[in-house]
Specification:
The two termini are about 15 Å apart. This protein has one domain. The chain has 2 helices and no strands. About 30% of the residues lie in helices and about 0% in strands. The protein is globular and about 30 Å long.
Length: about 45
């Protein structure tokens, strides 16, 4: 739970997407393939 909500906050408040992009060059494409901006539920993307 702490990896998804570090310090009790949302992960995107503490982690920068550039860290993931550097490790996974296809990160943006994978986000676009799996993310629906009209679906308000949380999404989990395994890298």
């Amino acid at each position: 739970k702490n990896s998804l909500f570090p310090n009790g906050s949302l992960q995107e408040r503490t982690d920068n997407f550039l860290n993931y992009y550097q490790q996974h060059p296809d990160f943006i494409k994978r986000l676009l393939d799996h993310f629906d901006p009209f679906d308000l539920r949380f999404n989990v993307l395994y890298l």
